[in-house]
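During the second year of the project, the team shifted from modelling isolated chains to modelling whole assemblies. The rationale, set out in the original proposal, was that interfaces cannot be judged from single-chain predictions alone. As a representative example for this report, we include one of the complexes processed in the last quarter. Its constituent sequences, exactly as entered into the pipeline, are reproduced here:
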Amino acid sequence: KQEVTQIPAALSVPEGENLVLNCSFTDSAIYNLQWFRQDPGKGLTSLLLIQSSQREQTSGRLNASLDKSSGRSTLYIAASQPGDSATYLCAVREYSGAGSYQLTFGKGTKLSVIP
Amino acid sequence: DAGITQSPRHKVTETGTPVTLRCHQTENHRYMYWYRQDPGHGLRLIHYSYGVKDTDKGEVSDGYSVSRSKTEDFLLTLESATSSQTSVYFCAIRDRGLNTEAFFGQGTRLTVV
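Output from the structure prediction step:
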């Protein structure tokens, strides 16, 4: 069974710092990986999707990398801002049988950016 | 933002009563999903739909049923609510294709007393 791990569970950084969030998965037979952010009491907002054939994906100050063979992804946030404070979740899409492809989520990293 | 609306946003119900949550989308996406989010467990798939009247079970489907009679609506029913079903429920949608993003609704906070 696929397991997705995000370490650390919580991270606090001063404003302006560059930071990296980590995501690891146990089964490398994935089709893609998606990063989300979740603000308290809110739904998930999609940030980036990386296909299994890709190594990187960028959106603004965010850069996500994928090393499928080693079961790792990182989300790099440049020049962090207080508005980046949220919980960041990664999820992998894999074949789950009967023609179905499902997401398995990590438990998230709670990021606090201190002004 | 993807056009996904969940209703109600908050609900308190008594043990043993049936409860129905609604997810409505305006994106005409093929796939719709129901997840629950609990501390220590993260997001877990309850049921999903791959078309009108086409549904299947997820990881934690016991005690739940779903229906999709129209492309835009996906209903989740707790047949007889229990305290263990107190959770935040999220609906998600995804378009056709393997490498398409999943988009989530704002969630429904359900408390079973």
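Residues 9 and 108 of chain B are 4 Å apart (CA to CA). Chain B touches chain A through 22 residues (CB under 8 Å).
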